Amino acid sequence: MPYPTPGVGAKVMVGSATVGNIGEWDGGPESEVADTTYFGASGSYQVNTPTIKKFKFNLKGSTDAGDTTGQVFMRNNIGTVQTFKFYIDDTHYWQGDAIIQKVNDKAQASKGVVQATYDVTGTGPATWN
User: Can you tell me the distance from the alpha carbon of 115 to that of 118, in angstroms, rounded to the nearest whole number?
Assistant: First the structure.
């Protein structure tokens, strides 16, 4: 029986560079739906039809001003399309082209480490490899 995948083996890559000091990512593909309920719908249930697909990912970690090919690259390339890979282990990952949409830093005196959040939004499909 396979075991659950431990999160410590995950990573994020932008282009061919691993983004440093990221401790959490979440996201993936999803489908929008349109309410297409018609008069007299069977069983009085709402009818939904799948429409457009998209993907979004959110990365969180410690701000790393020395990570020139990862975090610094993403900060300097807001609004550009880059190729991302979101690994769950050494072999399996989501991959797709996405716009670096947002960078947000959070500093708290009581925590001692500045935290960074990055939002990326897909420009096409995200494929599972």
Answer: 10
Domain count, the chain: 1
Which tens digits make up the pLDDT trace of 7-23? 778 999 999 999 999 99
Assign residue 120 the CATH number of its domain.
2.30.110.20
Average pLDDT, the chain: 93
What would the 3-class secondary structure string for the chain be?
A: CCCCCCHHHCEEEECCEECCCEEEEEEEEEEEEEECCCCCCHHHCCCEEEEEEEEEEEEEEECCCCCCCCHHHHHHCCCCEEEEEEECCCCCEEEEEEEEEEEEEECCCCCCCCEEEEEEEECCCCEEC
Separation of first and last alpha carbons in the chain: 21
User: Given the structure tokens 């309410």, which residue do they identify?
Assistant: 35
Q: Domain residues for 113?
A: 7-128
